[in-house]
Amino acid sequence: MNMHGATSNYVIQPTAIPALPVQGTDKLFPVHRVYCVGRNYAAHAVEMGHDPNKEPPFFFQKNPDNLDTSGEFPYPPASNDVHYEIEMVVALKSGGTDIPVEKAMDCVYGYGIGLDMTRRDLQGKAKEMGRPWEVGKAFEASGPCTPLVPASAIGHPTQGAIWLDVNGERKQTGDLNQMIWKVPEMISYLSGLFTLMPGDVILSGTPAGVGAVTRGDVLRGHVDGVGDIEVRVV
């Protein structure tokens, strides 16, 4: 958002800056961009029909205001096959271009837990036709998320369980150490493609076991060292 003038200079009222709460405080983390790394756990790459050993990391984006901390996920229109994908969220306090791997963690403000909700049928059609994924990935409330926990409080989680239950049944399970591209590598690689900025958020990939949701489902997820998330499909 261009904030170079008084609000009265805008021809329409600007929308609010998307933000995530910081756990245990009344502070807000302003969200600039949302980058999602695809197929970053080998077993998930396999279940999606890909060889995890043959490709560099790739990214797609959600919109900043797709992130939602309400605890409810409204089932979206135009789809009959909406999937959950639990991910660790990485929030950046600084950025730049061509950031060396060994300097990348200096950019991290903190962590959260998110769900990359996906209209899989629409994504599948887009893939078949060689089209972008936004209709499958970047719709309203498609990024249920927890408040952020500062790295100053928890450090930088590099291993530990990541899992998701649907209606009390374990569906996804993995370990952060199974990420093909680790957090500093993601940040460094991304900074070669984009100018990373304070407020950027990275969804770091999902373990195997993705599947569909229906209205009324309760999703409960966990990332060791970060916390828990609970989302109801409405």
From TrEMBL:
Source domain of life is: Bacteria
Q: Which PANTHER family does the entry mention?
A: ACYLPYRUVASE (PTHR11820), FLUTATHIONE S-TRANSFERASE (PTHR11820:SF90)
Keywords for the protein's UniProt record, in alphabetical order:
Hydrolase, Metal-binding
- List residues traversing the bilayer: none
Q: Does the keyword Transport apply?
A: no
Where is each Fumarylacetoacetase-like C-terminal domain found? 34-234
Q: Which SUPFAM superfamilies match?
A: FAH
One Pfam short name:
FAA_hydrolase
Name of this chain's protein: Fumarylacetoacetate hydrolase
Any signal peptide, and if so, which residues?
none
Q: Which InterPro entries match?
A: Fumarylacetoacetase-like_C (IPR011234), Fumarylacetoacetase_C_sf (IPR036663)
Extract the GO molecular function terms from the UniProt entry.
acetylpyruvate hydrolase activity; metal ion binding
